[in-house]
Structures are given as C-alpha cells and as structure tokens.
C-alpha cells in the first residue's frame, strides 16, 4: 500500500495570509501556469450569476400585488426596447416609453407629487429582491411627512432616464427610480436609486442624485431609505437635484 | 466629394469620405446606435469595394472632421510627413492593403511610413482587411519604448500590473501588487486606477508604489491613472511621478468632455519630462483609448467609432508615449456587442496603432452585460500575442474589483508567454531571476516567492 503523504501547504500560494487585506482574487495558486480547477469554476459561477441577472425578468404581477399595500394606483409600463437583446444594444430605446405606456399615463390625472418608479435595468433580480423592502421603509416616511404621491410605476426594459418621460407625462415634480445595476462578479443583486427634481426628457446624469449598491451585503435598505428620504426633502425644499444638491449636504452618512 | 459603386444594377452612392468610411466599417452596435452603419450586407461590401478604389491622396484633401473646427484634424494634417508619403502616394486604399502585405514591406519599410499615413488612411485600410491581415501586418511592426526598461522588442511581451482596490486601501493594493510581481507581472508598469481623484489620495498610492520599487530596485515604472490635472498638480509639487496618464479620444469635442486639450497634454508632458526620473529612455506618457468614446461623449460628428479611435492615436503620438492601450471591451454592448465585435475592434486598434508607430497594448476585457466570456478573451489574447501586442493588463484572477469588469489575469500572461515563447522586458526578466522569483525559463523558483515575501513583512504590520 502506498504511503500516505501528509498534505503540505501549496508552495505556489504563499500569499494566502494576504487575503484579509483585499477581496481581489489573489492566492488562487497555479497548475502549471494556469488557474487551478476550483477557482476556475468559482469564477465561472460568479459570471453565470451575473449573466442570469442580466437576463432576469421583473416579476411584475407579484410586485404589483405587493404594491397595493401602499394604497396608490399602480401602472405597468414598458420602454420601446422590445427584447433584452435590443435593450442591450439600444440604450436610447430603453429611455423612451412605448405608445401603450404613453397612453396609459395620459389617462391619469395630472399629479405634481413624487413619482416612485421600479425599473428592471440591468438586473431585474435586484428589483425583485430589494425594491419592496426599501419601499416598506420609505413609504411610511413620505406619507407621514404628508408628501403628495403620484401613482407607482413598474417599467420593463428600462434605463434610468425613462423616469423623465414618466414624470413629465404625469406632471410630477420629483422622480425616484429604483433600478437594477449592472451585475458585477461579486454581486448580481445591486439596486440603484436615482432622484431627479423637475424631471423632463433631455436631462443628463448631472441633474440626478444616485444612491448605489443597495443590497443586503452592500448598503442595507434601512440606510438607503434614510438617505433617500433626506434627499427627497432637501430636493423639494431647495428646488433642485444633481451636483448642486450634493455639494451642500452635510447630513448624508457615508458619502 | 461623393463616391459610388454599382452592384447588379443597383447604384450605391456615398456622399463623402466620412460616410463611405462609416458604411465600409465591419458591423458593430455603436455605429448602428449612431445611425451610421450600412443598411445591408451588400451595402457594406459595396462601400468596401468603393473605398478600396479611393486614392490615399484623397484623404489629404478631404478632412472628415473640418480642419477649422477641430484641433485633432489640424494636428493630423499639420504633422503629416509629405516626404515619407512619396513611397505610397500613388496607392489606393486597396493598393495599400496589398502593399502592406508584401514580403518586401518589412519592419524598416513600415517604420518609414508611420508618419506618412494618417489615422484615417490606417482606419480605411483596416476596414478592407480580414483579421489575419490585421495580425500579419501588425506582427511586422516593431515599436520599442523605454523608461526604466525596454518594452516592445520582438519576442517580448509585457504586462501592466493593475492592483486596484475599491477604497484605495494601501495594504489591499500591496497584496495584489506583490502577488503580481511574484507572477512576473508589471514590466509595462505598475498602474493603479484610484477610487477617488483627490491629489492627496493619489499621492498616497504613488508613494506606496515608489517605496516598493526603490526598496527592491525594480526596473519598472509606476503610474496612478488619475485625471491629468491631478497628476500635473502632483508633478508640480515634485511628487515621485514616473508616468503621466490620460484617457484621450479622436475629436477635440470629445477631448473637451474629458477635460483636456492638446495644450494641457503638452504642459503635462513637459512637466513630467522635467522630473527626469527615467533611466534607459524618455517615454513618460501613458494613454488609454477605446472605440465608442466619441459617440458616448456625443462628439463623433458622424464619423464611425473605429475611425474616431484611430484619430486618437494622432493625439497619443504627439507625446511619444511609453504605453498606449485600447480598453476595448470596457465600454459595453451598445458599442461592441459580443466577443466577435470586441475581437475585431481589438485587432483593428492594435493594427492601426502599430502602423502609426504607437507602442500598442490592449486591455483584453469585457463587462457582464456583453455577450462575451473568458473563452472569447482567451481567443483574443492569443491572437494579440501572435500579432505582437506590446502589453496587456495583469489583474488577480481577471476580476477588477474596483472597476467591476473582467480583464486578463497574471496567469493569462504566463500562458501566453509559455505557448508563444515570449519573454518579459529584458531588464525586468533579469530582475525576476536576480530576486530568485523565476528561473531563466520564466518558471517560478521553488521557495523564491516565500523568500521575496519575507522581505516585505513591514508592509503587513497593523
């Protein structure tokens, strides 16, 4: 019987002790010059999660049911991008509402309140998993502050700027769109929130404020709700959003 | 002026050189997004056939972005080497392709026309070349640059060690940096993308790398990829800046959106030169480019994204850079949709850059919303190695945790060196052997990494 040789530390992984200093994929070891099987497949799995998130679909029926708890009309909308493939190639179409959606919004009464929008963006998974948790904390704050609210909107194949068109159709004075961020290898469920004062088509990113990386292992929803509520109040009282709003704040934690 | 071609009784008309170039461009999403692409397969080939009959002299008479409106056009036209152009002035674009592929058109001949070809001519000929043509011609070019080592020699292949960290944590950066060195990465430079652009934060990283470099006498150069104004501020304060970095694009308007112009680049170039920190050569600039940046900045003037990209090389060339790389797959699927488009764009960029005399490297990379994966990158990496690419990036496990995209790993570079028999920059290779990290064949020495690590202990004290 062959003698059992005790496992010795892999001499090609002398850096293992440095893993505490960075999340980077260091100390993977080598087989020949190549990455060993285990870390090679771990990488593939992370990429698979990201890819699945890009092609995930917003669970609009379940979300619409849940949104009823806030006692506001819920509108289901769609951008002009008709498929995920087209959405990825034509960001311009993801910023525009399709005709049906425009008509649906035109049927609504004018409302100069705040419009809250849920959009799939590059990860519907992020919205499916995080959006309601955030709204459950944010809505009571808005309602107890007696802020006027427009209908809640769910929009598929959406880019951030589609919020401008929705808000303009409703006549809303402020928009907040919760949207799935581009999945990374470490997180595929990251949600962003973009706030715009007096939104209208043609605005660019410097007119917006963004809260990024909202997810349980990133920025928790409780903190995100506090930040958003603060930004909404400041934006309404100072009548602006974007770079100017950021410059003068002192109360936002972690920024 | 208008160009036209008839196929099976159908007349294809192209109103200008600018339109013709765009319609002749191999399919990519960015040109479709910009509304510049050919409407059918036939129209694209009609444009390519038409383009192949265009005289090179036409490019000197018809600016695709007006001379009066754009300093990049003025730079291209004013720095054109009319004497060198005599060798090729009789050629059409198609004739140029045939000439480039001739056995007689060798490294020396190609070098003699680097300033005689305009970026638009290089872009034009690339559009009628197949991938193998782009590789074959680029392989014949040799562009060698020097700072503390020699990059771009035939048979050598370098890496930019890219130890990024999401919060610029010094120990986090050092951990990735040391691992990179132990894998033989970092001869092109040790280059960090800072998470914040504040001069104080950038200085901290610069000091960290410089201290390590001096402690171990590493024959390489450092770079923090902050905005050029931040670097300039630090240079003017006498900070230990080796390379000055900037992202550049192919139109004045796009560069304005980056907060730069030729004067600012000139100022930063002379300031960095004045620090006099190099030992074996005087190339102090590091530029990054990438197809789609002009469209993304809404500054493309109806010019296709590959031609815009080639124009950026004129900007780079003015400042004799040590390194230029196209961050080809970073921009996303609305510009380059999948592995096929990314691969094609990378080979075009490498070819055009080399033809124009630039030390081209490539960030072989993709994002998670592109239709690409590691297999696509392996293919591209191998093609670029064959084409004689000067350098690629080296990132722990391909995963840049700061910029959130996938590039090439330390292992990838070792793979390429092994299968193609390529070596690091000579000075850096000698250092790796001297330190006991690798042997003469580039394989890791037993116990070498541990011995090297032992000397770095002070870095890890809390």
UniProtKB/TrEMBL annotation, chain B:
Sorted UniProt keywords: Bacterial microcompartment, Cobalamin, Cobalt, Lyase
Enzyme class, spelled out: lyase
Residues that bind substrate: 160-162, 193, 288, 363
Binding-site residues, adenosylcob(III)alamin: 194, 246, 296, 402
Reactions accelerated catalytically: ethanolamine = acetaldehyde + NH4(+)
Gene Ontology MF annotations: cobalamin binding; ethanolamine ammonia-lyase activity
Location(s), subcellular: Bacterial microcompartment
Required cofactor names: adenosylcob(III)alamin
UniProt GO cellular component terms: cytosol; ethanolamine ammonia-lyase complex; ethanolamine degradation polyhedral organelle
EC number in record: 4.3.1.7
Cofactor: binding comment: Binds between the large and small subunits.
GO BP annotations, alphabetical order: amino acid metabolic process; ethanolamine catabolic process
Pathways per UniProt: Amine and polyamine degradation; ethanolamine degradation
One Pfam family it belongs to: EutB
Subunit structure: The basic unit is a heterodimer which dimerizes to form tetramers. The heterotetramers trimerize; 6 large subunits form a core ring with 6 small subunits projecting outwards.
Function according to Swiss-Prot or TrEMBL: Catalyzes the deamination of various vicinal amino-alcohols to oxo compounds. Allows this organism to utilize ethanolamine as the sole source of nitrogen and carbon in the presence of vitamin B12.
Protein name per UniProt: Ethanolamine ammonia-lyase large subunit
Species in which this protein is naturally found: Mucilaginibacter psychrotolerans
Gene giving rise to this polypeptide: eutB
């Amino acid at each position: 019987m062959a003698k059992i040789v005790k496992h010795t530390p892999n001499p090609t992984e002398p850096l293992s002790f440095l893993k505490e200093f960075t999340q980077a994929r260091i100390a993977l070891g080598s087989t020949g010059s190549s990455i060993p099987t285990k870390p090679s497949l771990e990488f593939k799995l992370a990429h698979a999660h990201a890819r699945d998130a890009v092609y995930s679909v917003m669970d609009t029926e379940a979300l619409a049911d849940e949104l009823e708890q806030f006692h506001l009309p819920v509108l289901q909308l769609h951008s002009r991008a008709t498929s995920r493939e087209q959405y990825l190639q034509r960001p311009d179409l993801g910023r525009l509402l399709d005709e049906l959606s425009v008509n649906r919004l035109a049927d609504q009464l004018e409302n100069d309140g705040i419009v809250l929008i849920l959009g799939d963006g590059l990860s519907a998974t992020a919205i499916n998993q995080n959006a309601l948790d955030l709204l459950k904390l944010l809505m009571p704050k808005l309602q107890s502050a007696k802020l006027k609210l427009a209908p809640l909107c769910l929009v598929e194949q959406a880019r951030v700027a589609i919020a401008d068109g929705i808000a303009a159709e409703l006549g809303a004075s402020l928009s907040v769109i919760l949207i799935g961020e581009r999945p990374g290898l470490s997180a595929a469920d990251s949600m962003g929130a973009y706030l715009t004062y007096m939104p209208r088509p043609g605005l660019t990113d410097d007119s917006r404020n963004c809260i990024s990386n909202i997810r349980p292992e990133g920025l928790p929803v409780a903190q995100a709700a506090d930040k958003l509520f603060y930004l909404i109040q400041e934006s309404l009282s100072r009548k602006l959003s974007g770079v100017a709003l950021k410059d003068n704040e002192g109360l936002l934690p972690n920024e | 002026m208008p160009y036209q071609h008839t196929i099976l009784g159908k007349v294809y008309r192209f109103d200008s050189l600018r339109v013709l170039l765009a319609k002749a461009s191999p399919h990519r999403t960015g040109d479709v997004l910009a509304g510049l692409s050919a409407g059918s397969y036939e129209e694209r080939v009609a444009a390519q056939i038409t383009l192949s009959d265009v005289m090179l002299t036409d490019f000197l008479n018809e600016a695709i972005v007006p001379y009066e409106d754009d300093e990049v056009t003025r730079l291209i036209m004013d720095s054109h080497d009319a004497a060198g152009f005599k060798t090729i002035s009789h050629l059409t674009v198609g004739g140029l392709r045939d000439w480039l592929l001739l056995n007689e058109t060798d490294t020396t001949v190609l070098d003699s026309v680097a300033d005689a070809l305009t970026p638009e001519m290089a872009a034009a000929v690339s559009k009628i070349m197949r991938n193998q043509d782009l590789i074959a011609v680029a392989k014949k070019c040799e562009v060698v640059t020097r700072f503390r080592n020699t990059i771009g020699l035939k048979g050598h292949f370098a890496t930019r060690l890219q130890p990024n960290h999401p919060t610029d944590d010094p120990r986090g950066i050092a951990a990735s940096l040391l691992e990179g060195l132990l894998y033989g990465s970092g001869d092109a430079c040790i280059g960090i993308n800072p998470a914040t652009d504040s001069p104080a934060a950038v200085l901290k990283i610069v000091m960290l790398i410089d201290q390590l470099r001096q402690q171990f006498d590493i024959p390489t150069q450092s770079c923090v990829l902050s905005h050029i104004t931040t670097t300039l501020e630090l240079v003017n304060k006498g900070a230990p800046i080796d390379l000055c970095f900037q992202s550049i694009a192919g139109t004045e308007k796009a560069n304005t959106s980056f907060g730069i112009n030729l004067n600012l680049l000139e100022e930063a170039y002379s300031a960095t030169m004045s620090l006099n920190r190099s030992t074996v050569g005087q190339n102090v600039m590091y530029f990054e480019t990438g197809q789609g940046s002009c469209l993304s900045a809404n500054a493309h003037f109806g010019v296709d994204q590959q031609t815009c990209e080639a124009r950026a090389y004129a900007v780079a060339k003015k400042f004799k850079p040590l390194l230029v790389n196209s961050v080809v797959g970073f921009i996303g699927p609305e510009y380059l949709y999948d592995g096929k488009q990314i691969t094609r764009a990378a080979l075009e960029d490498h070819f055009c850059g080399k033809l124009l005399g630039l030390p081209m490297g490539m960030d072989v990379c993709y994002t998670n919303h592109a239709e690409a994966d590691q297999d696509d990158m392996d293919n591209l990496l191998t093609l670029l190695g064959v084409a004689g690419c000067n350098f690629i990036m080296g990132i722990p496990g391909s995963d840049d945790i700061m910029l959130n995209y996938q590039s090439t790993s330390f292992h990838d570079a070792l793979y390429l060196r092994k299968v193609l028999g390529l070596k690091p920059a000579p000075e850096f290779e000698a250092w790796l052997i001297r330190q006991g990290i690798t042997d003469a064949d580039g394989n890791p020495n037993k116990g070498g990494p541990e011995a090297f690590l032992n000397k770095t202990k002070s870095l890890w004290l809390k």
